[in-house]
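Observation: inputs received (chain + zinc ion).
Thought: call the complex predictor directly.
Action: predict_structure
Action Input:
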Amino acid sequence: MRGRCPGIVAVLVILIAIAAGTPAAWADDSADAGQQVVAAYTTVKGSVRPDPGVSVAASKKKLYDMAESYIWAAIPPDCRPLVSRLELFAAQTSAEDAVDGTATPNDDGSRWTLSFDWGEAESAVVERNADDEAVFDEVIAHELGHILSLKSDQFTDDDSRGTYSDSDGTFRKSAYLNAFYQDFWKDRYPGWTDKDGDQEQAAALYGAHAQAFVTEYAATDPSEDFAESFASFVLQTKPIAATERSKKIRFFYAYPELVKDRDFLRQNLDSAN
Ligand SMILES: [Zn+2]
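Observation:
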């Protein structure tokens, strides 16, 4: 059995700043201490049920259910068996450095808990704020990018083949993230080291290579770059530019199953329609 980071392996923190046009502010991935779960759902054979272990304010239940329905409806059929739980949390930290969503594997890495910020879900799904719809859809696509690239079948116990490895394990030669790493990270950034989501290093890397990343957060590490680029692949039209970041978005078109996921997500995410 492969050892896995027991905590959050996949965190997207985003800016409330899109509307304001100000630079993104990102937090590190240790912000889960500042979250309180307000609603939780377990998935059993394709259906979603409220977790009776989490008591929910009766006045809010309908609204939470709306958000859950929206999220679940957007998840492509081939990804649904990988999701064991959906959670909505209330962020206790300031909006500037709030975590928007997380994807956390179960102990054996076979299924995942997806968690989303309730404040953002409410604004996007209930109030239909267009800017927040766009952000929320990005978060959903980003977290699915993590699940697709970190699911069990992407890893190998054979670490002798020079494939990419990170704190989650060693990737198979055919793994999405290994291919992404070989194409876009290997030998590119000599000074870069994996520093567990260090945002200062990400800002510096982005500052030096802005055209190589779809967002500053993407410069965190190959895994976040993959998830951010995947979200752009889902939500943007296919780019034609010769820039590195456009190549990263086009990377996903080589995988028919991911194009299928993209089509499904676009049909069900409001900001893509
Ligand atoms: Zn992430």
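Thought: report the result.
Final Answer: Residues 10-130 form one domain. The chain has two domains: 10-130, 152-272.
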